[in-house]
Each structure stands twice: as structure tokens, then as C-alpha cells.
Amino acid sequence: MEKFDIAIIGGGAAGLSCASRLSELNKKAKITVIDACDRLGKKLAATGNGQGNVTNVNMSSDKYFGGNKKLVENITCSQTALSTEKNLFKCILIADEQGRVYPGGKQASALCDSLIGDLKRANINVKLSTKVIDVKSENGRFTLSLSNDSCVYANYVVLCVGGKAQKQFKTDGTSYALAEKFGHKITPLYPSLVQLKTETKHIKTLKGIRVDCVLSAISNGKILAKKRGDLIFTDYGVSGNAVFAISPYLVDKQNVILSIEFLPNVENIAEDIRRKKALGYDNSELLSGTLHNQVGRAIIKRANTSDELVIAALLKNFTLPVVGSLGFDYAQVTKGGVDMKDVSEELESKLCKNLFFAGEVLDVDGECGGYNLHWAFTSAYTVAEVISKRLK
Ligand SMILES: Cc1cc2nc3c(=O)[nH]c(=O)nc-3n(C[C@H](O)[C@H](O)[C@H](O)COP(=O)(O)OP(=O)(O)OC[C@H]3O[C@@H](n4cnc5c(N)ncnc54)[C@H](O)[C@@H]3O)c2cc1C
Questions:
Q1: Which DSSP state fits 55?
Q2: How confident is the model at residue 22 (pLDDT cuts 50, 70, 90)?
Q3: Poorest-confidence range of 33-47, 65-79, 299-313, 328-342?
Q4: Is 84's pLDDT higher than 90?
Q5: Cα-to-centroid distance, 46 and ligand 1 (Å)
Q6: Distance between Cα 357 and ligand 1 center (Å)
Q7: Cα angle, residue 55 at apex, residues 53 and 56 outer, rounded to 5°
Q8: Which band of pLDDT confidence, cut at 50, 70 and 90, is reported for residue 314?
Q9: How far, in Å, CA of 60 to CA of 71, rounded?
Q10: Which candidate in 166, 205, 219, 230 could, as Cys together with 240 as Cys, close a disulfide (CB 3.0–4.6 Å)?
Q11: Which atom of ligand 1 is least distant from the CA of 10?
Q12: How many CB atoms lie within 10 A of CB 32?
């Protein structure tokens, strides 16, 4: 039977950074990282379209949803895991014009390599293609039962098993049961940062077209959220940054309508149409050149009139009722998770001493733009520092 000081369950963004930081703070600690995938950091390597949007310069607890705002603020705004000079990847980080921060090489897989390198140099034990199927705590020590019928012992356990988004990364939601075994409650789970299904009657001809827009989500007359960004029309509805950004605000809401404002901040559209009418343009061409031709024609067809005021109004408020989302298989992140009420400020279980949590498994999720990886890294750093102090 193998014995460790610390067993980290899950070798994703949180698990890898927790192990890396622990080995830095406590060279003698005997650590194992156990992951169900055949490679460490598989999801991390796929983030940000393979470029790894690791954090954001506009960090604030307002960017997060879920339990215990104060705790999230303390962790996300005070941790140094992602400070630009001395970050956990030991590489140059650069911000784009929207504040999204990437590694200089814009290669997410290189971030994994960097963390895996830390683990190798520190001789950390790694078990791949191995799922932890049970954890028990007896006499102040944990016993972990593994899918290969073996067991390991550990004095501390860090649960970094992620959530339920994109089960091809072995994050299918079954591992919440490991927390439930200790009496932890799991808040309702929803897919977030996800594509939306809408009524498609008016967008059938627009598949694949990308527009820059202001996108609002409205439910029963109330604006739930309003975001500027890219929107891509698809055969099921809409995708793109603006859609991902708005999706966290829609969970559990009924009768949601999306309102697309094409050409944000352009006011003289009716005048433009009037001019084209005076020049004898065909009805279907009244928005030609002003918008992508197919989008212009779809708007005019829906307006069903050549009245410039009706067309201009539709261009500012093109509505699409939401009928659902693409669900967990396509979502970037899980909304909900281990209830923060039973988790201390140090991210330790209040129900079982020496059991810690980090990353997406907790009921904390962020907006689009690097906030979710930032939470994974900074929560993992917090746990590493607490455990390291206790080991000394
Ligand atoms: C396609 C995609 C793109 C994304 N892009 C970004 C981005 O650019 N910026 C950003 O901030 N966020 C992004 N995210 C979200 C971000 O990747 C996650 O929030 C983050 O990876 C969560 O880290 P984690 O370590 O908590 O969980 P994960 O990275 O999901 O790691 C959990 C690990 O636990 C393992 N595991 C689960 N159960 C067990 C078990 N019982 N035993 C052993 N191992 C287990 C899994 O195999 C997995 O490797 C993206 C997500 C996706 C899917």
C-alpha cells in the first residue's frame, strides 16, 4: 500500500498548480496526483482555442457567480499565482485589448508542459488513467480506492476533480459523489459559457455568419445581461463570445428572448435606407453594404415592408426566443458545485478535517475571459499554502 502526505485527486488546471506550488513550498512533501485521463492537464491544453486565456487584467469578484463572494474576492484578488512578473508558468504573459491574458507563445499545451515539468523535477508521483472511486477518512488518515483495484493512503486530500462540462475530459459529474460521501451538498448544476438554441425561423439563411453586435437577454421585460462581442449564427441558434458571455445569466430563467443590436452606435440607418430607396434600390438590397448582405436580406424579409423606420428598428432589436442551450457536452464550465457554506476560508471541508477543494468542483464559476482558469489556479495556490504550513 502506497502512503503519501498529500493525494491530489484530478490533474487538471487546479490539481497541477496545487502540486507544483506544494512542491515549491515543501520540498520533502510526498505527493501523488491521480487523474482519470491518460494525460495531465488535458482540458487546460484545450483552453482559449488552444491559446490558454489564463487570467484577465480586469480581475474582480463581480466577474464570479456562486457562493461566498467575500471568499472569492480574497482568493482571486490577492493571490500571486498569475502576477505577470512571477507566475506559476515562469513565462511572459501578455494581455490583449480586452484584458484577456495569454502566455506569450499563445500555446495552452505549453502551460501544461511547464507544470508537468515542475512535477517531474520534484519527483511527484503521478497516476494516469486512474479514477478515484472512493475516499474514506479513518483515524485522521484517508484511504483512496482506485479504479485499478489498488488503494493509497494520504494525510491530506485535495479534491480537484472539476465539474460536469465536456465529459471527454473525464469530467462527467460523477466525482461530486466523492464530496457527497463526506456530507457535502452539491448546489444545482447548469452548463455555463455555452452556445444557445433559439427559434431559427428568421436565421435559417445565416448559418456560419459572424457579426459584431450588442447582445441582450431579456426575461419578462427585464434585461438579464447585455454584452458586446461576436455572435455566430448556427443551425441550432447562436454561438460566439457575446453568447458565451451572456449564457451564465440565463440559467434557470424562463421565457428568455435575445435581442441583437446590429451596428452598435450607428444611428443614421433610416437615413441610409431612405437614400437607397430614392436611388431606386430593390427592396431586398436596402441594407446592402451596410450589413453583411445575407443578414441585411434576412432583416428586410422579417420586416416585411420597405418602411425605413421599421427596418431600422429591427436592426436595433432583432429578437430570437431562447429554447435551450447545447448543454454540458459543449459548455466550458459548470455553474454550481460543492456548496461553499460547508467550506472554510482556507477551502477546507468544515465536515472533514484535512479534506480540501480547489477549482471548478466548488460552487464558483466565472465569466468568459480567463476568470475560470484564474479561479482554478488561485484556489489551488491557497490550498497548497495552507497544507504546506500545516506540514511544517
Ligand atoms: C474547451 C474549453 C475551453 C476553455 N477555455 C478557457 C479559457 O480560455 N479560460 C478560462 O479561464 N477557462 C476556460 N475554460 C474553463 C477551464 O478550462 C476550467 O474552468 C478549468 O479547467 C477547471 O480546472 P479544474 O482543475 O478545476 O478542472 P479540470 O481542468 O476539468 O480538471 C479536472 C480533472 O480531474 C480529473 N478527474 C475527475 N474525476 C476524477 C476522479 N474521480 N479520479 C481521478 N481524476 C478525476 C479529470 O480527468 C480532469 O483531468 C475552458 C473550458 C473548456 C472545456
A1: E
A2: very high
A3: 65-79
A4: no
A5: 9
A6: 14
A7: 105
A8: very high
A9: 12
A10: 230
A11: 34
A12: 22
CA of 270 to the centre of ligand 1 (A): 48
Give percent of the chain above pLDDT 70: 100
Q: pLDDT for 150-199, tens place per residue? A: 999 999 999 999 999 999 999 999 999 999 999 999 999 999 999 999 99
CATH of domain 2-189+335-391: 3.50.50.60
Handedness of CA 307, 309, 311, 317 (dihedral sign): negative
The Cα–Cα gap between 306 and 147 comes to 66
* Beta strands in 286-382, from DSSP E residues, in sequence order: 318-325, 333-335, 355-357, 364-366
Q: How many helices (H) and strands (E) does the chain have?
A: 9, 20
Contact criterion met (CB below 8 Å) for 338 and 362: yes
- Pocket probe for ligand 1: among 37, 82, 145, 171, the residue whose CB has the most ligand atoms within 8 Å is 171
Checking if the pLDDT of 44 tops 80, the result is yes
Q: Which atom of ligand 1 is nearest to the CA of 359?
A: 26
What is the pTM assigned to this prediction? 0.96
Q: Which residues of 103-113 are buried (b: 16+ CB within 10 A; e: fewer)?
A: beeebbbebbe
Tell me which residues have their CB closer than 6 angstroms to ligand 1.
Answer: 9-15, 34-37, 42-44, 46-48, 53, 131-132, 160-162, 165-166, 169-171, 175, 332-333, 359-361, 370-373, 376
Tell me how far the alpha carbon of residue 330 is from its chain's centroid. Answer: 11
By most ligand atoms within 8 Å of CB, the mutation choice from 16, 37, 47 for ligand 1 is 47
Beta-ladder partners of 321: 257
- Poorest-confidence range of 84-93, 112-121, 302-311? 84-93
Cα Rg of the chain (Å, integer): 24
Q: What residue spans define the domains of the chain? A: 2-189+335-391, 196-325
The atom of ligand 1 lying closest to the CA of 360 is 26
CB atoms within 10 A of CB 263: 18
> Is the distance from CB of 76 to CB of 61 less than 8 angstroms?
yes
